[in-house]
Amino acid sequence: MPDGSMAERQSTPRQANKANDIALVFPATESAVRRALNSVCGTLRALAVNDFTLASVEIVLAEVANNIVEHAYANTGNGTISLKCQLEAQLILFEVIDHGATLPNASLPPKQVHDLESDINDLPEGGFGWGIIRDMTHSLAYRRYKGRNILKFSIVCEG
Amino acid sequence: MEMTSDTSSGLQIIKVLDKRIDAAAAIQFKESIRSLTSDSDGPVVLDLAEVDFVDSSGLGAIVAAMKFLGKDRPLHLAALTPIVAKVFTLTRMEKVFKIFDTPSDAIDASEANRA
Question: Which of A80, B30, B47, B104 has the highest local Cβ count within 10 Å?
Fold first, then answer.
């Protein structure tokens, strides 16, 4: 009966939590990444996540997704990115999956430390991504499983 | 990419009108800066008041713009919004650029230098 199932759904905290889960699959292109960020951040904002936390989410997701577009799929645009997001009380949990190339050494790249005192022509124009991801996440884990890259991370809900 | 350009006290003030300098916009950003600065000289101030998001590709594009302007034409930044400022701090690139609160602060500093 529809009424009965509704009552059961409301009385079960786990089911209520499910309503805060976000899942989307999008093509591995720069423009699709932009739309996906817009969608995820818009949904989290509607779920009362504050601007400070949203800024961290948008920055980290952009770096993670752009890495997949540029490196895992080598800018071919052939491939998809699957993104799941779960809003908890203190943390937002993310799982990002792609079917592209394995990360170098099948492990998380280190934060690159750039020499910023160097000549203007030697200043870095890239290599910031993993440093940003490492600095802004609470937890971060990578594994390669059955031809897929699985990146799980969490971001603290500030204030 | 949409930008406006004004010259004041020997400074070229380029205001970015788009909301994002990200991976999808990095190439257009560099091309627009290149064409707006090709017929001018003097320092350039990039007014980022309207930009609410920069990712590492956008940051790389700003560094690239600084490089092609060369040592004789410094690129300064003005009016960083919170997320943009955060990305510059995290990557320590805030140390590479002179950053002003507003474009008029950059003009004031330039005039003080000349006086």
Answer: B47
The total number of residues written for chain B in this structure: 115
Do B60 and A125 make contact, defined as CB atoms within 8 angstroms? yes
Closest Cβ–Cβ partner in A31, A59, A128 for B24: A31
Domain B3-114 part of CATH 3.90.79.10: no
Rounded to whole angstroms, what are the CA distances from B103 to A64, A73, B62? 33, 40, 17
Contact A123 B22 (CB under 8 A): no
- Residue A101 identity: A
Question: Does the beta-carbon distance from A131 to B55 stay under 8 Å?
Answer: no
Q: For the segment A18-36, what is each residue's pLDDT rounded down to a tens digit? A: 667 999 999 999 999 999 9
ipTM at complex level: 0.92
From A131's Cα to the closest Cα of chain B, the distance in A is: 8
Count CB neighbours of A2 within 10 A: 6
Amino acid at A126: G
Residues of A in contact with B65 (CB under 8 A): none
> Average pLDDT, stretch B60-64?
97
For A52-106, write each residue's pLDDT tens digit.
999 999 999 999 999 999 999 999 999 999 999 999 999 999 999 999 999 999 9
Tokens, residue B36: 């707006």
The pLDDT assigned to A17 comes to: 54
Best A118, A120, A135, A155 member to test B by mutation, with max B CBs in 10 Å, is A120
